[in-house]
């Protein structure tokens, strides 16, 4: 390279240094000073990664004094260039030596980088264009926020998430029965609200025992990094902010923390967008004496725009408390309990009409009359005539029924504020098959029990009951090692034989205590070499994940996973269908949680429940109460907590004494009360509410769209190519999974979200659902979003030069391909992206300035191109430069025309959709008071703001590719 003192060059590898000046040329080395940063660099003269900066006539350059010169001609003397032209500030003729150019000039615009010889590889141009298209596709998806979470595509869950998640500041009660996924529904709504910009700050309030479970669920399923706040965390946070709640955007805390006046005041002042309250049935309320917990949530609900309340048992503390929770959501709507009762009674006629519509049969006269009265403001007779006709296609009939049903639910349903699905209305649950195995009590336990009885005066009744249900615990107290009980316990013998006879089956074993789980693993390993792993509260999250992954592994994995009681909380092991209850919990809710690890929607096999027990002990009596009193093994028992609270004293007495008469009376009373509660719940079930909560055919269509997105092979190919370009190592691990690791050759120094030791990922939802250690990759996953941001937020792929070998065209013919981004800056919360997201506009010009983009697709054109190296590319650009300047101007004209069309279409779409939604809600408000004024005001304000943002739409050139025709 010919270097001369004073010449201006730029670094190809460190363009951020600005314009460099040659200050020394000696021997084989050249030294440049970069005045903008005050740094020097020394390079080898033969292969320096430098590009000479020489501008051309028509370019505008800035001098060190700040004025700009439009170049008309240039001259070179002893290797230095002087530019002649017109000053933009005063119109006078002037000259500017290259040594006096502004040091801060940066070549970040694509055309500047192209002319400066900063040319990228051909494949990087392609991946940048794909990345911009993928970002546009994600932003415009009506499924935004629903595909990304690692959850099953369960219709009623996705339906609720879709209906609630897209609202402004949703305020609803999620009250699905146990096992139907309220936490997943809440997570889907949170994820959607955050991803769409409707919410930024979220507070989750849970019982103290569930803080960790929520933290793990939000991270593992939704890629949401919440922070758990307790008193210690609040004290630590004072170093960063006077209000600790301002130090994080996503916070989980317990009600106990907020009982402290100071913490509640800080939470009230923290500007949350959305509040979630789990186990909301604990919020007791009476008109004259609300509980402290209720008062805390009420105070917060008055300040926080969006509120989600979660409970599986909305009537647990009585119907009045259920009304009180609705009152938290909308005190203007639910202001009087008596009025609420009367309104509920009026729903019966609506529910009957809704049931007739959903039956698929012809409507009786009574239903037609009812519908005509309920939908008096609308002419429904054309739809009714279609439903009643004999000669009309069933699909059309179903469509007419669905439209009328939606009208009915919109106007008279409670579904906008309350969602409740039951197992009776949601299909897809397996059968439960329960088998018990009586075992003789070993003499060692009898001896230990007699000695313990003489020494247990100091023990509490609760301790004595625990020991009666877990005799191995008593034996351990009298043994120094505390570990030999499993050598004689017949339940362990039974377990070993069971596992040997079912070696091909995955078996989940749950025991009450971690010590028992550890001892069982030792017994299986030492006595028979059975592969088993343990899962208990003493393990870290990573250790639990590894244990779960080892159990889930199909080949070479553990046959059995042995859990302490914590294994019955939150985790999903539905790939197994055999559950061994090594002992029984006292509370029926805990029993339901244990069974619920396998008995879930999506379980493909019947759930086999096995219980080995010691005959004639408290274990057998508790088994009989669960089986005969509650039928809790083979059926769910939604009223179990109520029955337990009512019968806990006589139950405890029977377990400890074994009195047969008392046990018979207890079982009879429990059965009678169980049937009474069951009948009351079924009679009280609101059919109208169920229809609105499960979504029916609309929910099924929604799930199909999500499944189609999962199967989008184009997305998979684009993401893998993105990782290839960035330089991420990809190792095929088998089982539909890939290990991603940072490499030494990555294009960027770091890849945020990609751990140093790598991450295992899959594009297959079923694989991700069965393996907690494998991340589900969709277009919404942070690691994909970050990859797109790395490409589109940098200069990667903004310039390229290629050769088109085509003998049908004259050699030397040029084409200029320009990628513009149409964008309008607006806050995420404005929802502008729904109508006018950042949109790539492609312009393909021939030498005459004709735009060929509509006739020549990107894909077909790209396949015909060959790459050239950077030095040849730079020479081709220099040679073509006189022709390129007018083409750039012409390209912007074409792009502006496309932008104008986009804005018109976006404005029409926005106006049509929001006007229709506003009109719908205004008409509904006349008959359904669940519509809040805040929602209507938000839509009106949104339309005004969006029109303003669209007026400010701008074009920006994002990438440029020069193509020359060659016959060689």
What does this structure look like?
The protein is of the alpha/beta class and 968 residues long. The protein folds into 6 domains: 8-106, SH3 type barrels; 157-333, Rossmann fold (3-Layer(aba) Sandwich), CATH 3.40.50; 347-412, no CATH class; 432-682, Rossmann fold, CATH 3.40.50; 711-777, Dihydrodipicolinate Reductase, domain 2, CATH 3.30.360; 799-966, no CATH class. The protein is built from 32 helices and 31 strands. The strands form 6 sheets. It has a 7-stranded parallel sheet with strand order 12-13-11-14-15-10-16, sandwiched between helices. It has a 6-stranded parallel sheet with strand order 17-22-21-18-20-19, sandwiched between helices. α6 links the parallel β12 (227-229) and β13. The radius of gyration is 35 Å and the shape is globular. The model has no long low-confidence stretch (mean pLDDT 86).
Count of helical stretches:
32
* Average pLDDT rating: 86
Query: How widely separated are the two ends?
Result: 28 Å
Q: Characterize the overall form.
A: globular
What is the C-level CATH assignment of the largest domain? Alpha Beta
Instruction: Kindly state the number of beta strands.
Output: 31
CATH H-level superfamily of the largest domain: P-loop containing nucleotide triphosphate hydrolases
Structural class: alpha/beta
Which consecutive residue ranges, at least 5 long each, have pLDDT under 50?
Answer: none
Roughly what percent helix?
Answer: 40-55%
The CATH architecture of the largest domain would be 3-Layer(aba) Sandwich
Strand content: 15-25%
CATH topology of the largest domain: Rossmann fold
Rg, nearest Å: 35 Å
